[in-house]
Specification:
Distance between the termini: 33 Å
Number of helices: 13
CATH topology of the domain at 9-47 and 208-285 and 374-434: FAD/NAD(P)-binding domain
CATH class of the domain at 9-47 and 208-285 and 374-434: Alpha Beta
CATH superfamily of the domain at 9-47 and 208-285 and 374-434: FAD/NAD(P)-binding domain
Strand content: 15-25%
Order of helices and strands: EHEEEHEEHHHHHHHEEEEEHEEEEHEHEH
Helix content: 25-40%
Shape: globular
Length: 438
Amino acid sequence: MTNSSHDTSYDVVVIGAGFAGVTAARDLGTSGHSVLILEARDRVGGRTHLAEAFGRQVELGGTYVHWTQPNVWHELRRHDIPLAAPLDIDTVYWLADGTVHSGSRLDHSNAVAPLAARFFADARACFPMPYDVTAVDNRAIEKETIASRLDSLNLSVHDRDVLEGALATLVHSPDDQGVAQLLLWAATTFGDWGAFLETAGFWPIEGGTKRLLDAVLGESRAEIRLSTPVSAIDDDGSGVLVTTGAGERIRARSAVVALPLNTLGDVRITPDVARPARAMIDRKHPVRSAKIWARVRGEVEPFCAFAPVGKNPVNTARVEYRHDGDTLVVCFASGPSAVGAGDREGVQDALRTFVPGIEVRETAGHDWVSDQFSQGAWAHHRPGNLSGAVPLLREPHGRVHFAGGDIASVGVGGIEGAMETGAAAARNIAAALADGPY
C-alpha cells in the first residue's frame, strides 16, 4: 500500500547518495539542519562502486583523484587517507595506421605532444579562468565537436590515430562530444593535456573510494534511506514536496538533487527548469563507455595501450595491480556494444592486438549504460551545453538546488566536481535558511 501522507518533514531532502549528495548532506547536517538522504540504489556511492572481483576489491566506477583537487584533497587530509601509488609503467603500445607501435612512455609522449599541442592550442584563450566558463564568449568553440576539431587539423591517418588514441580514455563518441569540455579540462592544467591526464587518471585512494565516502558519511547527521527512488519534486513557493516511487510524500524547506544528468528526465520537477537545461536533460549526454577489469595470467610486464575509437574494441588499457601471481588490467571501451565486461574472449582478443599471447582468465565490470540509475558514464557535454545549459543547473532553482560531477565547473565529470557542487549547494541552502522564512 502506498503512503500518500506527508507528515514527515525536514529542513533539507538530498536526493542521491553519491559524493555530491553525501557532501551536501554532511555539510548541512553539521551546520544544524535536519537532513534526509534518499538513494535509489541499495548502496551509497553513485557511479563510484568499490566491489568484490577476483577475490579482492576493485573500483567498478569512478576511481582517481589528485592532490591538485582542492575539495577532494581537503577531505583526504582531514581524514588522514593517503593516495595509493600507481605501478611504475614504462612500456607503451599504440595502434596507428594499422600498425602497433611500442616504446617507452617518453617515446609515446614525444609522439603525442606536438599533435596535442595543436589540438589544445586555444585552451587557455577559451578558458582563461577555468572556474568561470562564461568569462569569454565561446559560442564558436561551443559549436565544435571533437570530431570536427580533429578534422580541422588535417592530420595524416597515422598522426590522427596517435592523437585519437591519446584521447581515447575520455573520448568515446567524438561526433557527439563537444570539444569545449576537453579544452576546459586542459585549461585547468595550463593547457597541458598530459598534465590533465595525470590529475584525472592515475592516483587511486588507498582503501578505495568507499573509504573516503564512509569518512564523510561518518561525520554526517543525516538520516539515509536506501532503495528509495524519487519520482517528483514540487516547489510550491513555501516548501518542497518530494514524492518517492512508492508514493510517500516528504516535506522539506529545500532540496538538493544530486542525480546523474541522464536520470534527471525520470524525475518530474515543478516548476520546470529553464528551457536550455530541459533540452539538455531530455537529450542526455553521450558517454556510454565501458570500464572493464581483466585478470591476466601471470605477472606480465606493466604496460599501457592506446587505440583510436572504432579501431580496436578496447581503446585504452593499463596494468593496475598484481594479485595472487596474476595481473589486473583496467580497460576502457567505447561502450558495451564494442566489448562488455562479460565477454572474456572479446577482451582477450582486443588485448592481444597489443600483447600477443596474453591470457585473460576472468573479467569484471558494471554496465553503467543499462543501469537505470546512471544511464551512462561520467558526463561529457554536447556542443553548446558546457557554457550554456550547465551553468543554469548550478544556479538555485527556487528551493531546489542541483549538484553532481556532471554539472560541476572546474571538476566536471569527476569526484572532485561532485564534492565541489555538493559543498556549493550546501552553502547556498544554509545561507538561504539563515535569512529567515524560506
